[in-house]
Amino acid sequence: MPILHSQGRVSQLPCLALTGVCFALFGLPTLTFGQTKFVANYDEAKIPEYELPPALVTKSGSVVQSAKQWKQIRRPELIQIFSEQVYGTAPKACSISHELISTKMDAVNGKAIRREVDVTVGEGEASTTMRLLIYTPKNAVKSPAFLGLNFQGNHSVDPDPSISLNQNWMRNRQGTTTDNKANESARGVASSRWPVAMMIDQGFALVTIYYGDIDPDFDDQFENGIHRALRTEAKSIPKKEKWGSIAGWAYGLSRALDYLEMDSMIDGSRVAVFGHSRLGKTSLWAGATDERFKLVISNNSGCGGAAISRRAIGETIGRINTSFPHWFCDNYLQYNENENACPVDQHQLISLIAPRAVYVASATGDQWADPKGEFLACVESDPVYRLLGTDGMGDKAPPQTSPPADQPVAKGTIGYHLRTGKHDVTDFDWMQYLKFANRHLK
Ligand code: GTR
What we know:
This protein is an alpha/beta fold.
């Protein structure tokens, strides 16, 4: 059922020219428009009037009534619209090559084997290489795995000094980077987000990659990284539809999966793709476009991720396109302050993962990402999951209201929780993902 809201719209994004960008915190620029700052709306009573585009009605107006119609008509239609209007169209899969860089037989207190494997995407001079950091449980054959991009380099995941220090361009962070390159103090700084021992103890492998190995996270008109590597392949894609960085990172995840399907210690048919924040938007798009991912986890992904854009609460399309013009394709700019004109919304992105398992997580202190909008997107994708023969969010029908904090709704094929705390990835989040993965990947 589409949700209709009748309250009047309160415009929050002034149409004045952008005159100043001041980066107050990493990744959280404060934008100044003329004299006025962007002020996010957090008031439910002030959300604009909207009607969600239906997941189960085709462009020609027919109601989708069977799994076959979904697979043959509606799913491809939605993939095409999201590609053309939101994330951009990526080139077809290209060839990869790989090389083992290092092996440590006694990682994680002797419980895991840790390897570094370089995967090169494309060929020749323009190719680009990403380094996979892989932990597999010792004595296991073909483990299920979590595959996730990281923000600060593989060396930030674990303090182990033998992990190579990434030397690609990195957003500056006080203390851990020098002139946009990681320094030695960056070792292990993100380890609280990657509880490797917890995963290994439960029989899962972890594969992680620095996202900047695939595409550096700044606006350069798509000249470097994966965009450069596949420039020829992307040539025929119309300009406004060219793939943004999120589509580039998602493409990299698919190429990493191409490699994992060949890895002797990992079961490529049981890989969960995971991501936080902008990388949670990425994991959703990777899961939507690549049906080999058996489970998709989006942690605090917000605008352009799991949150319904039409609610325009917290971060909006206009704001995200202004702060990060390189994340989406240029067609997406049309929907700045004009969400209702967008032919898709984010519940349809989650629907594209059906019938495979998906888990969306929010945090109470992350209103910028609109926790309620993330929850509603799960509820709205539930009918597609049920049409495809799964139990959706579980029980006979999806819950009517967001669950209280720290009480996951995760019995079904769509999992959701709202964690107490800030925009982050914590042990609580991973405990839920592991429980869910134990049910869906084993
Ligand atoms: C914020 C951005 C969010 C989220 C976050 C992150 O600045 O507004 O959409 O992606 O960055 O990725 O850390």
